[in-house]
Design goal:
It contains 11 helices and 13 strands. Helix 3 crosses helix 4 and helix 8 packs parallel to helix 9. The radius of gyration is 19 Å and the shape is globular. Bound molecules: acetyl coenzyme *A. Acetyl coenzyme *A binds next to helix 2, helix 6 and helix 8.
């Protein structure tokens, strides 16, 4: 079997639900203000799904766009990977709903859980499957309806999250030194409680009691996450620079998890990246979990900020704790 020289992203897509919730809208439901949210997070608005809309409903649109962009027929996809923490159901995998709805008739399909690092974890699996000869074309989607696990009575978390989906088609290529050049994946489960959804799993199955105690919503220790995030984002960028033998000047764009502009600014400026080399769309979408990097990557390409031959670093961190990066030559 001939092993390919590289795994290339040949198409991307994204989708957000129509409903928009602005910072001002939050001021009507919790004690907050546009000023506080803007200054502390950089967020202005986010898109939220309607009741009854599921994660696969967003992902299917992003996937169709990515397949179109790549010029790949669904039947030619070998593997569908869906990164999400808000699967349509615990059983079956959201990737299986997608496989059927998209018509990926000969593909395997599975979900991957790495919270906000999910898209990069999924790209790493796609690259590994391609370089090992297991698959030629992999459809990766990262999609979340975080509004379904957000406590809208908690002002400390509810303003942070939005819903959305991103997708990328990764394909085998004979061209060397291109595509996904390098990936770094890390985890530290000792910090698992920092971002936690306490009930609904096997540890604490759903009951009237867990619902009464609002345990089906995310609990986040924001201040602790903040410090961890800045440190890990710096380490990841540094690792990508060293592993790929690149200088800051040779990197066109850093595409970070859209978590908080203060976190992103602190980490990227310390690593020597000027603001024009850091892609931000947090003001439009808030934090969309695993979908965030996927959507930002798609928009950076669509806006012409990343073009053929350019190198971009995708960096993310999230619940788990997990953190991950991918260096990509387009
Ligand atoms: N509006 C107004 N005031 C608020 C709000 C709000 N929405 N939320 C909190 N406050 C108050 C707090 O109660 C606190 O008041 P106090 O001083 O009287 O106690 C004050 O604002 C400051 O709170 P801090 O938590 O110290 O604010 P901070 O500057 O750290 O910003 C934030 C909070 C935005 C959450 C920040 O810590 C952060 O971005 N952390 C990391 C992000 C994060 O955890 N994201 C989720 C990751 S999980 C995932 O991505 C799926």
């Amino acid at each position: 079997m001939n092993r390919p020289a590289s795994a290339k992203i040949i198409g991307t897509g994204m989708y957000v639900p129509e409903r928009v919730m602005s910072n001002e809208d939050f001021a009507h439901i919790v004690e907050t203000s546009d000023e506080w949210i803007t200054q502390r997070t950089g967020m202005k608005e986010r898109h939220l799904a309607e009741l009854g809309q599921a994660t696969s409903d967003l992902a299917v649109e992003a996937c169709r766009q990515a397949l179109d962009d790549a010029g790949v027929a669904p039947a030619d996809v070998d593997l569908v990977i869906c990164a999400t923490i808000t699967a349509d159901n615990v059983l079956p995998a959201t990737a299986c709903w997608l496989q059927d709805r998209l018509g990926c008739t000969k593909a395997g399909a599975f979900d991957l859980t790495a919270a906000c690092s999910g898209h990069i974890y999924a790209l790493a699996q796609a690259r590994a499957a391609i370089l090992s000869g297991q698959a030629r074309t992999v459809l990766v989607t990262s999609a979340e309806i975080l509004s379904s696990i957000t406590d809208y009575a908690d002002r400390g978390t509810c303003v942070l999250f939005g819903d959305g989906a991103g997708a990328a088609v990764v394909q085998a290529s004979d061209e060397p030194d291109t595509g996904i050049l390098y990936t770094a994946l890390y985890a530290d489960g000792s910090g698992g409680a920092m971002m936690l959804l306490p009930a609904g799993g096997s540890r604490r199955p759903p009951s009237h009691d867990t619902v009464d105690q609002r345990l089906h919503y995310m609990q986040i220790r924001g201040r602790e996450v903040f410090k961890f995030a800045v440190l890990k984002m710096e380490e990841l960028i540094d690792e990508c620079l060293h592993a790929c033998h690149l200088t800051v000047d040779q990197v066109t764009m850093v595409v970070p998890h859209q978590v908080n502009t203060r976190i992103i600014d602190a980490a990227t400026s310390r690593m020597g990246f000027p603001p024009e080399k850091v892609f931000l769309n947090i003001h439009k979408y808030g934090n969309t979990g695993g979908a965030s990097v996927a959507m930002a990557h798609h928009e950076a390409i669509r806006e012409g900020k990343i073009g053929p031959g350019d190198t971009a670093f995708l960096v993310a961190f999230g619940g788990g704790l997990t953190w991950a990066a991918a260096a990509i030559r387009h």
